[in-house]
């Protein structure tokens, strides 16, 4: 603000804005701040006609920044009636959207009963799960409002962006599940999700709107840093820090898993049954050395689970669900993480289906604020599904053939080894397939200080089964590779089209300060989506900036660089 600005007025506007943000509920969460400020001196009138006029004005204001204005205005107007209270209007909009999602779930159930294709039924089951996750994220947003702390304003807004972005991802994942499904169930599902998809996109646009409002009011100065003094992110508690620093012999576990009978249980699944529902503190599962053949789900009601092995090649969880045998990609993961604040350390996760089985996920990460340290993920096509929300990988190894790091989460891989494996005949190898669906969405795959190389079996065929850095899975696919070593396993063109000219103009691919024979950009493709970032622009994709603040700093347990790596 300019010097000499009236401090009392400024503080009053801050308070009004904070009240507005505190009342944010799904559909108009952000614009409420602007309404709160612009209407700060508005006095309620007993004239009902004035109320109608004001209600209409509020609806127009709330919907102004959205992509689908007509849908926004219709949903708020029909839900809110003639109220001129922006907070009540927003609450009504929230209820409207949740009800639309519930209707979509009901329609999914009906479609399932009518569908006789087993793969179609699986797709519809996935949709039911995904739409329930969307409702959960909206409910979480609502619940958080009751304990809103204005000193965490930036963090709060970032949470909303991530969670709303996830609801968009969930709905797209539902539609993706209908790949190769016979009949018209996929088209019917697309119609079912048309309105909810537009509402979610509108909500995200409103989230973006609030950032500029907050900056204009200098509210960001109230925000505490997301980083504690010792360099770990805010969601890593003291207990978790000690766990991440502990040697295997010094782990104080809530449950020990062992194949030889030396623990309380002999499977990770059995250990997870002991996690208290909505667990509020770290629940530590020590998985001793061994091969555990099982499908593991860290459910949405299992936050704060810490999974620690004896080493990424000593403790391995493996399974073989895959697309070729009838499992949709979303449900093929050997380990699926949905619960928030998950940590994995010193553990291997594998999908053993093999290249011939096509899509076969080793890890699917959908839980917010997930950390993977010194882990190994092995598969072929679609090894690591960075599905949704914030996730950080440090000192990990990821191996695969086609699109083996994919998804629309906010995923940063730091100091990781990315290994291209030998595929089937006539297959190319593609490291990344990022799936951002919305132009201003938060998702990206960032490889920072990584080493992209080839498995010994791949090297002899690297010029036959050619390797590429990535391809655009969705229209606004975004991948940044910086400060990394790229071996001569990557073709000079660097990037591969998905199909025809799809997303070549709208994707976002950047290479910054890499080295190695595969890093030479002289003969790279020249799509409009290929970006040349300045050093300052590249900083925006370092984890300290991308995760909003210096979220990670080197400490015992997880070495870390928050900015540019040398």
Short note summarizing the structure:
Helix content is 33%, strand content 18%.
Walk me through what this model shows.
This protein has 566 residues and is an alpha/beta fold. It folds into 3 domains: 7-222, Up-down Bundle (Butyryl-CoA Dehydrogenase, subunit A, domain 3), CATH 1.20.140; 239-400, Pectate Lyase C-like (3 Solenoid), CATH 2.160.20.10; 402-555, 3 Solenoid (Pectate Lyase C-like), CATH 2.160.20. Helices cover 33% and strands 18% of the residues. The protein is built from 13 helices and 26 strands. It has helices at residues 7-22, 31-38, 48-63, 69-80, 86-114, 118-145, 153-176, 185-192, 194-217, 238-245, 268-272, 535-539, 543-546, and strands spanning 255-257, 283-287, 290-293, 296-298, 305-309, 315-319, 335-337, 343-345, 348-351, 363-365, 370-373, 376-378, 384-385, 390-394, 397-400, 402-407, 410-414, 417-420, 429-434, 444-448, 451-454, 467-470, 478-482, 485-486, 508-512, 530-531. It has an 11-stranded parallel β-sheet. Strands 3-6-9-12-15-18-21-24 form an 8-stranded parallel β-sheet, with no helix packed on it. Helix 11 links the parallel strand 1 and strand 2 (283-287). The longest helix is centred in the first third of the chain and has 29 residues, at 86-114. It is globular. The two termini are 37 Å apart.
């Amino acid at each position: 603000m300019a010097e000499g600005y009236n401090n009392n007025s400024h503080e009053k506007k801050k308070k009004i804005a904070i009240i507005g943000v505190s009342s944010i509920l799904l559909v108009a969460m952000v614009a409420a701040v602007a309404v709160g400020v612009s209407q700060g001196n508005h006095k309620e009138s007993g004239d009902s006609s004035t109320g109608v006029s004001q209600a209409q004005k509020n609806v127009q204001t709330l919907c102004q920044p959205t992509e689908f204005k007509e849908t926004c205005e219709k949903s708020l107007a029909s839900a809110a009636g003639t109220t001129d209270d922006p907070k009540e209007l927003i609450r009504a909009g929230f209820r409207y959207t949740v009800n639309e999602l519930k209707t979509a779930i009901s329609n999914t159930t009906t479609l399932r009963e009518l569908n006789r294709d087993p793969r179609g039924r699986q797709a519809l089951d996935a949709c039911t799960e995904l739409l329930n996750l969307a409702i959960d994220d909206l409910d979480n947003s609502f619940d958080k409002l009751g304990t809103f702390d204005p000193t965490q304003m930036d963090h709060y807004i970032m949470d909303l962006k991530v969670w709303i972005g996830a609801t968009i991802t969930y709905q797209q994942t539902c539609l993706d599940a209908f790949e190769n499904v016979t009949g018209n169930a996929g088209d019917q599902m697309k119609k079912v999700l048309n309105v909810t998809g537009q509402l979610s996109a509108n909500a995200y646009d409103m989230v973006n709107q609030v950032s500029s409002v907050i900056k204009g009011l200098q509210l960001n100065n109230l925000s505490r840093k997301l980083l504690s003094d010792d360099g770990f992110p805010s969601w890593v508690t003291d207990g978790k820090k000690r766990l991440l620093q502990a040697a295997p012999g010094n782990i104080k576990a809530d449950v020990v898993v062992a194949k030889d009978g030396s623990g309380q249980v002999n499977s990770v699944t059995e250990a997870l049954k002991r996690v208290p529902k909505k667990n509020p503190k770290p629940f530590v599962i020590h998985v001793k050395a061994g091969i555990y053949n099982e499908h593991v789900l860290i459910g949405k009601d299992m936050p704060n689970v810490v999974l620690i092995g004896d080493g990424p090649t000593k403790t391995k969880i493996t399974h073989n669900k895959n697309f070729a045998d009838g499992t949709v990609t979303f449900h093929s993961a050997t380990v699926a993480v949905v619960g928030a604040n998950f940590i994995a350390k010193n553990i291997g996760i594998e999908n053993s289906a093999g290249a011939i089985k096509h899509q076969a996920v080793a890890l699917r990460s959908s839980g917010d604020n997930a950390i993977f340290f010194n882990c190994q993920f092995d598969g072929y096509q679609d090894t690591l599904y960075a599905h949704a929300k914030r996730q950080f990988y440090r000192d990990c190894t990821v191996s695969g053939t086609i699109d083996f790091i994919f998804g629309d989460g906010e995923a940063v891989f730091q100091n990781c080894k990315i290994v291209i494996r030998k595929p089937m005949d006539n297959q190319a190898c593609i490291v990344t397939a990022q799936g951002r669906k919305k132009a201003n969405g938060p998702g990206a795959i960032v490889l920072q200080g990584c080493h992209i190389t080839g498995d010994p079996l791949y090297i002899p065929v690297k010029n036959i089964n050619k390797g590429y850095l990535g391809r655009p899975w969705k229209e606004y696919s975004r991948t940044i590779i910086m400060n990394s070593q790229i071996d001569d396993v990557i073709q000079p063109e660097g990037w591969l089209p998905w199909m025809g000219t799809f997303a070549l103009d709208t994707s976002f691919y950047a290479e910054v300060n890499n080295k190695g024979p595969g890093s030479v950009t002289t003969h790279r493709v020249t799509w409009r989506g290929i970006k040349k970032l300045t050093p300052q622009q590249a900083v925006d994709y370092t984890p300290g900036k991308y995760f909003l603040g210096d979220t990670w700093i080197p400490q015992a347990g997880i070495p870390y660089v928050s900015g540019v790596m040398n």
